[in-house]
Structures are given as C-alpha cells and as structure tokens.
C-alpha cells in the first residue's frame, strides 16, 4: 500500500522516474560511448587504453570547474519554473551561455600546454605521447561540450527530460561507428588510433549542440520564455548565478582533482596497475554515470519544489529518487561482485602487447570487488548532494568535497608515494573511505534541514518585457 501511495504522490516514484529515467538513459548513452571507446582502444592496444584514462581524466579535470558552474543553470530554470516565472527562463539560459563561451575558449587554449603538463606526470614515454594527443583533441572540443550541456538545461530544468534523452541516444549512432572507424582505419577513414577516438568524441559534442540550437531558439519558445530577446548580458542575474554556481564548480573541480590524482599516482605503480584501473573505472561508469542522471533529477525536483515554496515536498522528492538509486546500485553491486572476469575480458586486446592481460585480469577482479562495496554508498552521496544542490546549499557541498578529497585522497596518496608503497590496495581503500565520508555527511546535512531556509530566487522580481 505504501509503495502504491508513494508511486502516485506528487514528488513520488512515478514523477521521479518520468524526470529521472530519460536522464538516466542519457547518462547510459554517454557511458556506453565511453565504455565502447575504451573497448575499441583496448582492442587496438593496451598502451592506448592505459593512456586514455589519464588523458581523459586530465581533460575532464579542467572542464569540471566550468561544467559544475554552468550546470547550475538547471537549478535556476527549475526554480523559476516552480515559481511560475517562465519569462525568466530565457534570462537564466543566456546567463549560462555568457559563461560558457569564454570558458570553452580558455579550455581550448590548454592544448598548447599538454606537453609540459604530461611531462610532470612521469608516465612511460610510449604512454605519455598518446596522452598528449588525446588530451589536446578533447580540450579543443570543450566549447561545444559546454554549450550543448548548457542548452540541455532549457528542457531538463523544466522537467522535460525526454528531448535530452532522444538527443543523447541519437549521438550514440554517430559516435560509436565513427569511433570504431577512426581508431582502426575502416573504409575511407585513416587509422588514427587514440587520436581517432578523441576526434569522434568531439564530433559527438558538436552534433547535439546543433540540434539543441534548432529546437530551442524558435518563435514559440521566444513568446513563452524569451529565449531570443533575453540575450543581453544581465549583470545582476549573472552575479547571483556565480554566487551559487561557483561553489558547485569548485566542488566538482576538487572532486575531479582527487580522482585525477588517484589515477596518476596509480600510473606510477606500473602499466598493469594503470591498465586495470582504467578498465575498472570504465566498467564502474556503467553504474556511476546513470546515477548522476538521478542526481540531476533530484536537483530538478527539489528546485521546482523550493521555487514553489514547499521544502517538505523537496525532501519527499529526494527520498523518492534515493529509493530508485539504491535499487539500481544494489543490482550493479551484485553484477560487479559475481562477474568481474566477464566484464574485464571485454578489454582483452586482439594481439599480444607489452602488457600481460592476464595480470590485468587478476588485478582488475580485485578492484571490481572494491567497486561492488561502495556502489550503495555512492548512491547515498550522489542523491543527497543533488537534493542539497537543488536547494542552493552549494557552499556546504564545496567545503565537504574539498576537505574530504584532500584529507582522504591527496594527502594519503602523497604519503604512500613518498614511502614507495606500491600496493594497489592502499589507494583503493582510501577511495572507499572518501565515499563513506561523503555519503554520511551529505545524508546528515540533508536530514538536519538548513537548506530549507535558502532563498535562491525569491528576492528577485520577474522582469517584464
């Protein structure tokens, strides 16, 4: 009876799935593209597979700050929607676009610094050369990536997540075949190896961006949301956007910095450790990234409830999303625990290379069980963080993730590296500790409820035009 009532209630399971499931599918599509990309690279060479993770992580590290800020457009649009202020939706969208354009150009300039940057990492020369190429291509593609993500918030923030899902699914049919052809030199395409993987990824950013532009900037949307006429730079709203969005960007950057540091320290252990970690992270994304879709759903639902002045409904929405996330992550934990070899064998190279894949398989099996342990903890941390973010509690999230990443990952890994300890268990145990602290802290913060008093948009008066 409880489940039936929770299904039908406003902010219940049905609404959570209507908003969250398309976002989960979108994240799954992104995960599938990343996963198949790694499989194609692993089949091509284990050196390319080993280089893809550090280069991707480094590129995403720099992107993460700007992504974390621009993502907050989603919350503003959700709260304006909940407050029945559609004319302000266009203003929020353009604030995000004004932020994304210079950010994307700045990120593209990082391609010029790739060589000295990866020279500091200390990986073998054969892997370092591949890391540089992959990183340069991904950073050049940062602008269409940011713009496309910002424009997707026009739909997602209003709870219309199906267009986001369909566009993401469509990009699969472009990216995966192109990825395979450009890596291996199929048909008219040259064999480009890891460079082909990067180029296919960038094209996968550009096509959705074009589709979003055509769908959003229409006469109908202009009449309802002022998506064209609100293009002028709004200093007051931009300052308010940065006030709440910048902590989200810093939080995302610090989290990614800790993960990047984790990957690069393991890269110093040896090629087997790096290749196995790369494969396991790729597999874990099958669980983690779809849950990010539920994290966004929690932010949207909480944002709309808070815009409507109803924090109780916001709490109810968050727990509805959490129940779904725990059910999904529980299934993934079982899969990771009982069939690690099957999943890892997807990365087995076609030809014998300088790295022994049997050693990668043995080590990867151990790491998969670490992943199985912290999947449920990740669900708690991610969903509660989404609820806090939707209410505007971004400074607390920034503080916790910044402190946790430094205390639980950066400092311990520096100590391990300084002592010359190269056991793979040390870094992964500290990663588990990091997730435990995030899950327990965000759960406690949400239940205590200081986020209920945050005013994100209430003092602003809707602009007439």
From TrEMBL:
It comes from the Bacteria. One of its GO terms (cellular component) is plasma membrane. The chain crosses the membrane at residues 16-35, 55-80, 92-113, 133-156, 163-186, 192-217, 237-267, 279-302, 314-339, 359-384, 396-416, 428-446. One of its GO terms (molecular function) is antiporter activity. It is found in: Cell membrane. Keywords: Antiport, Cell membrane, Ion transport, Membrane, Transmembrane, Transmembrane helix, Transport. Its main location: membrane. GO terms for biological process: monoatomic ion transport. PANTHER family: FMN_FAD EXPORTER YEEO-RELATED, MULTIDRUG RESISTANCE PROTEIN NORM-RELATED. This is Multidrug-efflux transporter. It comes from Pseudodesulfovibrio mercurii. The lineage of its organism: Bacteria, Pseudomonadati, Thermodesulfobacteriota, Desulfovibrionia, Desulfovibrionales.
